[in-house]
């Protein structure tokens, strides 16, 4: 997979990593689901791409409300696995 194709995915990952580093610690552990919504979205973008990952993350955030039961909610298995760097950026197919 070309590095050019991975740019949108890695830009979204950079934004989420910054959010998880700066903003998320201010809220503490308040998510009703495991993994947290930001972690779920990050994993979805890493495994499924920017468009589908953002869609999956938005649906997850909509489900996360005070009346939700919560629990473990893992992302669906991807069609193909992606290799990630130590910082979480996608580097290509495994």
Automatic annotation (TrEMBL):
It is found in: Cell membrane. The keyword Membrane applies. It is a peripheral membrane protein. InterPro entries: Membr_insert_effic_factor_YidD (IPR002696). Keywords: Cell membrane, Membrane. Could be involved in insertion of integral membrane proteins into the membrane. Belongs to the UPF0161 family. HAMAP family: UPF0161_YidD. This is Putative membrane protein insertion efficiency factor.
């Amino acid at each position: 997979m070309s590095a050019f194709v991975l740019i949108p995915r890695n830009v979204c990952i950079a934004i989420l990593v910054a959010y998880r580093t700066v903003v998320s610690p201010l809220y503490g552990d308040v998510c009703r689901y495991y993994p947290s919504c930001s972690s779920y979205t990050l994993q979805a973008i890493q495994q499924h791409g920017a468009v589908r990952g953002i869609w999956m993350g938005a649906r997850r955030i909509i489900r996360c409300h005070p009346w939700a039961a919560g629990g473990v909610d893992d992302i669906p298995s991807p069609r193909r696995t992606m290799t990630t760097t130590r910082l979480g950026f996608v580097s290509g197919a495994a």
